[in-house]
Amino acid sequence: MPFADHQDVRIYYEVEGEGPPILLAHGLTGNTTFWRGYGYVEPLRDKFRVILYDARGHGKSDKPYEPAAYDLRLMAGDALAVLDALGIGSAHFWGYSMGGSIGFGLAQQFPDRLTSLIAGGVDPLYSPGENAKPSPLLEIFRRGVTEGADAVVEGMRAWAGSVNPHWEEQLRGLDLQAMVACLDPARPRTSLMNGLSQMNLPCLLYAGELEDAHRNGPAAVQQMPDARFVSLPGLDHGGAGITVDAIMPHVLAFLAAL
Length: 258
Description:
alpha/beta; Rossmann fold; eight-stranded mixed beta sheet
């Protein structure tokens, strides 16, 4: 299996298709099967070299248990390590939720390595601050560490309203101690607001109209030199992540225009 190495953390990746490279980054609790399972890869692989990878703490990648290991700057470096392992100078980047945050981290640190940025379900105007409340998912994972995967599935079902079979499979495969570390309030927090006005690369932001990230999307793109925002009617955060038919036409048109 192919792995990239970043500061002694191994990052698993897969490659499919031919054409300009596009790197896909999943959200929290996901892995490469997120993109395959919901049908993202097939519409892309005929025109792009599609690169999927498991974020640290997820899938087949290494799973540190120290909160400091989930610094956004390190997670952005993981994505860069995958590109380096493949000898790719720059690529399109598409991230959802946590993956979208990683994309902003890349754009802040290594703008020359991105051809464009597509980010869904993430609020770039959110600033964590010193008194930010812990994620409601943290307690679910802490409970799961002591009570097992059933407690996580039931906790997620209560939090999200439903858990489809694909997501349940992902949840049952998680290293729950790594999830606790990933969400630990002690981990370093980086504001996504840094340098929005200097992000000159083409950007596409999107969110479901029922999720929190939708509120600041239009205002965020106004601060960015070359960005647009797409609203997905009737969808919440989970729905915006898995309703491929709602977002794929916008993404393909955005990429084609480049």
